[in-house]
Amino acid sequence: MPISLLIRRKAGCEDLPLPRYMSEAAAGMDVCAAVDEPLVLEPGDIKLVPTGLQVAVPPGYEIQVRPRSGLALEHGLTVVNAPGTIDADYRGEVGVIVGNIGRQPFTITRGMRIAQLVVAAVARADVHEVDELPETDRGEGGFGHSGTH
Questions:
Q1: What is the pTM of this model?
Q2: Which structural domain range is residue 44 located in?
Q3: Where are the alpha helices (DSSP H) in the chain?
Q4: pLDDT value of position 137
């Protein structure tokens, strides 16, 4: 059953589409850049890209901000803190921290789909400090310990 996501466009952003699912089974909604003029990201650059949107996420949920796979593969454009999190109590403008890990400059223009938003349920934990943890077969085996393939 879908949940309600309340979205407010900032003044001057009425020309931009609301986030939307691009296919029937898509998990993420594409979100667009609300830049006033083209923004060039040189290789290695990291910029905060405005979306012109504010959201009211229902309690018990978050929105994860993720890269768009096509932009990542074709241009090396990524969301640096992926997945970014928009908490249920945040009411400021949604911004996307975009990085260019590609080899060529990339230009973001107004209305360009720059990231995807995934609404996800949040599980909260009660934290309990203990002197010892329960044993497992893996134990303290770290990176790569569970297998090479």
A1: 0.88
A2: 6-121
A3: 69-75
A4: 85
